[in-house]
Design goal:
Layout: E1 2-9, E2 15-20, H1 23-32, E3 44-52, H2 55-65, H3 68-77, H4 83-87
Antiparallel strand pairs: 1-2, 1-3
């Protein structure tokens, strides 16, 4: 399987969108500081993921979620998961 995942930084509440074939390992990599782009924003929590059979479909979905339209869709999908952060005056936006 190929996974598209959304992580939320517990430090700055921002979201990170990624792609992996091993979701558990990838989350551990992010939280251990093994990922250069997210090292300073850890720890993370997994807030959403999708499983795809096709690598191309997963990559296309990841790319879409990083667009403005995709970020808007993502906010709707995650509105309940992120409601606590919004209600406390913090904005969570995909990066």
């Amino acid at each position: 399987m190929f996974y598209v995942y959304i992580l939320q930084s517990l430090k700055d509440k921002k979201l990170y969108i990624g792609y992996s074939t091993d979701l558990r390992k990838r989350l551990k990599d992010h939280n251990s500081g093994g990922t250069k782009s997210t090292k300073v924003r850890r720890p993370f929590r997994l807030v959403y993921y999708e499983a795809h059979i096709s690598k191309n479909d997963a990559r296309r979905r990841e790319t879409y979620l990083k667009t403005n339209k995709g970020k808007s869709s993502l906010r709707q999908i995650l509105r309940n998961a992120l409601a606590k952060d919004f209600s406390q005056g913090r904005k969570s936006s995909p990066k």
